[in-house]
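Re: beginner question about structure tokens

> Can someone show what the tokenized structure looks like for a real chain? I only ever see the sequence side.

Sure, here's an example I had lying around. Input first:
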Amino acid sequence: MKKLLATGLLLSTLGLAHAQAPTPLDTAKAAPAPNPLSYYGFVDAYYGFDFNHDNTNVRPYFLYAHNRQNEFTVNNAVLGARYDDGRVRGSLALHAGTYVSANYASEDPVLKHIYEAYAGFRPFKKAWLDLGIFTSHIGFESALSKDNWTLTRSIMAENSPYYESGARFTYEVGPKLTLTGLVLNGWQNIRENNQAKALGTQIQWRPTAKILVNSSTFYGNEQPTDSLIRRRYFHDFYITYAAAERLNLALVFDVGKQQSADQHGYDTWHTGSAFVKYKLAEQFSTTLRGEYYYAQRGVFINGISPGLADADFKAGGTSLNFDYLPTANVAFRIEGRYLRSQNAIFQHDTGPSRNYGNLTTSVALSF
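And the corresponding structure tokens:
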């Protein structure tokens, strides 16, 4: 009898303990929800030096990032906030620096210091609809050097959109495939310059964990309202491959066509670059880049040189950079770059030249 009473008491105690133990659901409810509001910042301070420069502090006209030489300055300083609770999202960020002065020169002074400003929501489970100003859907290289394999940007990156304004619809087909459609004010402009809207698409596919394939397109008329319509078609393609634990590769190719000024036919430009990034040690890496840029009659890139207004633009070159990351959010980078053109488009102290070389160093902080 005593044994039966003891057994019953033990079972009731275990049952009470089991009833009082928190369930996984109770634990989840008790855990605080993540804060949907976050803040971020980035500062890229640099010094550049051009060999045989023409006694000015400005680099070639088609370079917009790190475009000053023999001058300690800031390429881009960004401060912003983002909100994302899974159903609603948005961002507001301001920026300043030599990149802004060069690349936003034609923008309204009130708007040129906006890095991004958009608001969006999920119209259904796997989709986002965003309206406002956001980073471009085109290109392998961005306006923030910390996200790029090289310190300076390739000619192709400098002469394709860094930012855009309009409406963006993103559909997450699955973990490996994302589709995006855009209606834009135009090719890298915040304010509309005519009554037409531009269209864009982007496909990002990850067939494996090591490969990313991107295809982006643009279509629009980029001429002012009082000018003849000159339609522009553009396609950007790149693929990245993590070939080994320390080795990453990337290939990028762009092609564009725009109606010629006489409305008869199209002028074409195409450009490509290849990147090889190798991790030397835990805090050290290096990247080699090769690139070329061709524009028929200087279409789009323009401003070749006095007396060469209708000449083809042909230039290519290589760069090698060395990166040191003393901490996770600080990067010290140094890069040497050499470009050579078909025509004498580079202004040196001894006159126009086909050759151009520079050295750029940077310390960047992000949080």
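Each token stands for a local structural state, so reading them left to right follows the chain. The domain at 34-366 is CATH 2.40.160.10 (Porin).
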